[in-house]
Design brief:
- The protein has 66 residues and is mainly alpha-helical.
- The chain has one domain.
- It contains 2 helices and no strands.
- α1 runs antiparallel to α2.
- The N and C termini lie close together (10 Å).
């Protein structure tokens, strides 16, 4: 149950950060490549998180307590 709550917190934080990046990019009229770079950074973060949880990588950036 505790792992599920932590996962939900991570998902909500990721959504807030993603929305914040989108808001900044659209509010200040940044060019499209900036939004692509922000999306790529978010994709790398989520892939690193999933790889760590699945044990694919050597280090775990965001460990969930077991």
């Amino acid at each position: 149950m505790q792992q599920l709550i932590q996962l939900l917190i991570y998902v909500v934080l990721f959504a807030i950060v993603g929305y914040g990046l989108w808001w900044v990019c659209t509010k200040f009229g940044l060019p499209a490549p900036v939004m692509w770079i922000c999306g790529a950074i978010l994709l790398i973060v989520i892939l690193a998180f999933l790889a760590g949880q699945l044990g694919v990588s050597g280090g775990n950036l965001f460990p969930l307590r077991k």
